[in-house]
Amino acid sequence: MSVLITSKFQGDTAVFRQALVDHADQLAKFAEMSRSAGAIHHRFGVGDGFVLVVDEWESAGQFQQFFSNPDLQAFIAAMGAEPGPPEITVTEAVDSVDQF
């Protein structure tokens, strides 16, 4: 059974948008690392003063282990996130007939 994880980071969204371009190689590296660690899906969303990350992982434990990587934490800060922990929600992924 997989889990859906949302992570809401407060921060400078202009810095984040520029970092998507400037740090594309590092983003690709972390994407590959996350897939190897159990990530299934990953998306970003930008709101008013925050970035939302929507992931699907094989398990919450795999996400927690990946997310605790100090190199990843430093990279998140470089992407414009404010200091302090993000708001993280973990839910069980369930199938439904309207899923796409």
Structure description:
This protein is an alpha+beta fold and 100 residues long. 41% of the residues lie in helices and 31% in strands. A four-stranded antiparallel sheet has the order 2-3-1-4. A hairpin with a 2-residue loop joins strand 2 and strand 3 (50-57).
In short:
With 100 residues, the chain is of the alpha+beta class.
Q: Rounded to an integer, what's the Rg over CA atoms?
A: 14 Å
Fraction of residues in helix = 40-55%
The neighbouring-strand order within the major sheet is 2-3-1-4
Structural class computed from helices and strand pairing = alpha+beta
Which percent band covers the strand fraction?
25-35%
Helical element count? 4
Low-confidence stretches: none
Distance between the termini: 17 Å
Q: What string, H for helix and E for strand, traces the elements in order?
A: EHHEEHHE
Mean pLDDT, to the nearest integer, reads 97
Major pleated sheet: 4 strands, antiparallel
Shape: globular
Number of strands: 4
Blueprint (SSEs and pairs):
Blueprint: E1 3-10, H1 13-22, H2 24-37, E2 39-47, E3 50-57, H3 60-67, H4 70-78, E4 87-92
Antiparallel strand pairs: 1-3, 1-4, 2-3
